Amino acid sequence: MTSFEEYKNLGNTHYQANEYDLACTYYEKALAVDSTNAVGHSNLAMALIKLGKHCDALAQCELGLQCKPSDKIEQKLLWRMSTAREELFKQSECGTNSKTNPGTNPGTNPGTNPGTNPGTNPGTNPGGHKTVDNNTVEIPIVEVDSLPLKYQ
């Protein structure tokens, strides 16, 4: 049987070759072996973002945060969650959702966005961070590998 690491490494190889569909396939296979590995959810989320599947990426971030990841992986998941939400917001401003599938989020109710509680007061998300509103999650500032250029 192929291990989580072997599938993850195959996913990473395809991701680095800009073959995001194939990367997703291998990350999903890795998660089929170990669904509690936050790295798998994080990697899958990034590949989904590259494919423009932002709702699905949000769902993977939520699942990854539920796995109680290390601080470094938690920060990556939160950054990827923020990136996916930002892209969804941009699309909603333009009235386009052509690259997202809001009704097919794994681990969520159809037609809902993970991490939101419509009609409820702000609280905390599964990662334990304060939810300010449906589009904003407060996260602690910690050291990260690198910041995207637009934040430097």
UniProtKB/TrEMBL annotation:
InterPro entries: SGT, TPR-like_helical_dom_sf, TPR_rpt. Pfam families: TPR_11. One of its GO terms (cellular component) is membrane. TPR repeats lie at residues 4-37. SUPFAM superfamilies: TPR-like. Coiled coil: none annotated. One of its GO terms (molecular function) is molecular adaptor activity. It comes from the Eukaryota. One of its GO terms (biological process) is post-translational protein targeting to endoplasmic reticulum membrane. Residues 90-139 are annotated as: Disordered. Keywords: Repeat, TPR repeat. Residues 100-128 have a biased composition (Low complexity). This is Uncharacterized protein.
